[in-house]
Amino acid sequence: MVASTEGFTEDLNGNDAEVSISRLAYNQEQFDVKFGLLPVDRRALREKVRSAINRCCAPYTTAKGILTTIINFIPILQWLPKYKWREDSSHDIVAGLTIGIMNIPQGMAYAALASVPPVYGLYTSFFAPLLYMIFGTSRHVSMGVFSVVSLMVGTARLRILPDQAIVGSSLANGTAPTGSVLAEYSPIEVVTTLTLAVGLVQLAMALLRLDFLTAYLSDQVVSGFSTGAACHLFAVQLNEMMGVKLPRYDGFFRLYYVLHDLATAIPQSNLAAVIVSICSIAFLVVGKEVINPLFKKKCPIPLPFDLFLLIIATVVSHAGQFKYKYKMKVVDHIPTGIPSLSLPHFDLLPTVFRDAVEIAIVSFVVTISMGKLFAKRHRYRIDSSQELYAMGITSAVSSLFPVFPATTSLSRSLVCEAAGTKTQLNTVLSSGLLLVVILWLGPLLEPLPMCVLACIILVALKGLFMQVSELKPLWRLSKIDCIVWIFSCVITMCSDVMEGLALSVAFVMLTVVLRSQWPQSHWLGQLPDTMLYRDVAQYDSAVEVAGIRVVRFDSPLLFNNVELFKRVVHKAARHFKLDHAGYDNNDAEIAQNDPSVKKKSTAVRRLVIDCSGFTFIDCMGVQALKEVSAEMDAHGVTVAFACAKAPVCQLFEASGFYKSVPKRMFYPTIHNAVIASMINEQSQDGFKFDLQH
Length: 693
Fold this sequence. Notes:
Layout: E1 2-4, E2 8-10, E3 17-19, E4 23-24, H1 28-35, H2 45-57, H3 63-73, H4 76-79, H5 85-113, H6 119-135, E5 143-144, H7 147-160, H8 187-207, H9 219-242, H10 254-264, H11 271-295, H12 305-320, H13 322-325, H14 349-378, H15 384-398, E6 407-408, H16 410-418, H17 426-441, H18 450-460, H19 462-465, H20 471-477, H21 479-494, H22 497-517, E7 521-526, E8 533-535, E9 548-553, H23 562-572, E10 606-610, H24 619-634, E11 638-642, H25 646-655, H26 657-660, E12 666-667, H27 670-682
Helix pairs in contact: 5-6, 5-7, 5-16, 5-17, 5-18, 6-15, 6-17, 7-8, 7-14, 8-14, 8-15, 9-10, 9-18, 9-21, 9-22, 11-12, 11-18, 20-21, 21-22, 23-24
């Protein structure tokens, strides 16, 4: 039984190519025998586990294997010996000094978001990058403080250890606050324990190979969530800029209560703080939006206007005695020296665990997203599993010092790339600059007004708010993804950041379920003079073979879409009368003017189900295929299956499906199934089916 002929020819100009085939029209069973389908691994579970353990232990059985494993686990041992000192050192020095300068104001400002004193932001920016440099695989990401993660840390800290001014959003209803006071712990002790928990969660994810879970935080979820979180960041900074102290809220509609309190507190604003804030914002906006773009061609590295503002504000505040004359809140005491080692409070781990899981996932997603972006631009590879180890070790080890969870900063990473960095060795310079501040220069920053740090954060939020511009192209590309973005943003604005993230992930998983529940289906026709079959509604020249209908269902066949699949099959076979008592006539309605039918309908006697869309089939899916095959057979329609994937065929074998539907009815290609059906048709007497509703 010959399907067609194939060879390959091409004209001299290379414009057209012609393919032709000459082979037998195998069914799946013949195809497997002819080309030697390998047997399925049916070893006992115990043997598979033993084999997996042996593979894991194999690298540690020899000294060379152990050394190779250690080198692979500590990437710095791979790239540092090969470092090109003459070519790359100048780039890393410039990038390191630039990032170090940015770390000073950002570290202090984002510490306020984490609800801890500013000096702990400097500690975080010092320790975390050094540890990541040893274990990380990205050359360009800047590890340290990041606004969204800092806000999540601050939210967790205030929930676990509220300040006196903190209330729950439930107070509007007269109920008690949600946080439980743990008076024996200081805020930094709670945050340090949270850092340890984040590290342990990330290490556990790495050991269990759970980095795939971050796939549920799609780009749209992260972008929408971070934009919604930026609204909370914006509101939190306004009270510092106004110089007023307001209660904090927790739970749904937190943002509404904060903005309401800000509006009512306007008459009590500290006028000096407002003036300083306006001047600071104007200085930063002019510097970043006007001056830096003018010098961008001559100097790709942006001028550090954050640092300039920090120095100017500190000098002016000290000279004008803002703290005493205008009752302005300042940074105040900054201790000098490296903090001593201390163990986190392990008894707090159960309390912070839920927050740690969310922070661990978000921080990893941000890092791996930026890492992949830079790796693609500069043509190198990063290891997502190693990144989890790197971040886990960074958080776990740095928790021995008073720090809070770190992740990749978007702005600093982009600046680092623009500075031309070649390796993570730039971290030595940036951390060295921070060390100078920590050891000697810290007290000089004590007069710095807190409203200035709030302005630095506020202006830095521009990048997060500008993500709204993604909506227009996203709507054209995928309306569902656009809805995911909007939902993630709105739900984060209407709730707390922790709840917003959880609900956003739940919503995106719901969209996955809904997409699988209502997938697309297609009727396929043959393209003239080819063995290719395409949707007759999309290709004008695609023609259905007389008496044969080819159907494709683009989804795994699962319990939630089997009824839809049955309706699709019934509609495909609408050109013949199905008067079985148990058949639903609604499923047999005939669309006489269906635009997908390009030629006059012919009585269908063969139905070919293209199984290429079935990446997986569950028990109800297998049962649905049995029912469809039996029902069609009872009405004189032969059902054939084509293009079933190997795992699906193995599932059919294991489930006993071939006892109900012979294996000879399966074909490796659609064309094989059509050819076989045509030959079988010629061996039988033709007959027609009445078209009835």
